[in-house]
Amino acid sequence: MQSTLQHASNARILFGAGTLERLSVEIERLERSRVLILSTTLQSGDAYSVEELLGDRGVAVFDKAVMHTPVDVTEAAIEVVEQNKIDCLVAIGGGSTTGLSKAISYRTGLPQIVLPTTYAGSEMTPILGQTEDGLKTTLSDPKIVPDTVIYDVNLTLGLPAGMSGTSGINAIAHAVEALYAENRNDATSEMAEEGIRRLASALPIIAGNPRDVSARTDALFGAALCGCCLASAGMSLHHKLCHTLGGSFGLPHAETHTAVLPHATQYNANDEPEVMRRIATALDGAHAPAALFSLGQAVGAEMALRDLGFREEDLDKAADLAVQQPYWNPRPIERGAIRQLLQKAWAGERPS
Ligand code: NAD
Asked: How close is the Cα of 272 to the center of ligand 1, in Å?
């Protein structure tokens, strides 16, 4: 399947198996000729393959992308941009590499083409989170959205089974919150439901066989839909909790989303019964929070925050931080109930 998706932002989106072949044409469309390829150190092999594929247009590789987009890494990359008269960025990787690309583009105005290799969804959004002196700040600007996103299923086949499961549930979290967002609409809700359905059916298959191309296609298409949801709908309690746990306690991104999502969904269950029914149906389950928990277990994820390194003595502090400047949420944010939610997520209790 190769196709072009319609998207709320102006990003041009290509989807399919083998779409990487179209990269040179996309660079030509942007009328650019001197490309810097970005990646993490772990994926530098992929970055050098892309450089080779681009021939004369592939000018340099910068393979130092890391989590949370530290400003000093961005500045080091911009030196490479200036030294090599770069006129276009190509990012190959997950949310961390996309974050670096956005940070460079935001400062230099360079066009960016993103080749996602996880299900995180950052490639669809106008949001950039960065860290400097240990502080994380987030900004949003339409010019941060990549010019072109090339989803190539083949680039996801090497994503390890464990990371595939948690990254996919990270994507599902965008869709769950889009379904009960204050600014929800029929289009985002349809995309959300279909995104959840595709990922939920594909992820357990990928857990058993990470190179199953059909399941990978469903998962990446589902993730693209969930990314559209993230770009178009407001996020609520679940994202606030995960930003708190990641930003203030250093918990890992996708794994934390996976362990928290059943409990954040449960928190809103009584206020959004119709949304819960839609989520449960998309998950082929009877009760949305329990079905999300079962999906996490089916992909072999840690479902207790304590197993991700979160300490019981930090529960009170996390609850305090999570209720400060809360995001809009269907159910009012009550500190006592949030503390209970965190306790259950810490212990890894199945919601019922
Ligand atoms: P990641 O980009 O940090 O990747 C994790 C590791 O997996 C890296 O070492 C990466 O190189 C490796 N990896 C990625 N794809 C691979 C593949 N196919 N094969 C083998 N290894 C692979 O993880 P992520 O979950 O994609 O992104 C998380 C980051 O993205 C967080 O910092 C989060 O805040 C940010 N994010 C931002 C937005 C936004 O809209 N701004 C949205 C989602 C996530």
From this structure: 31
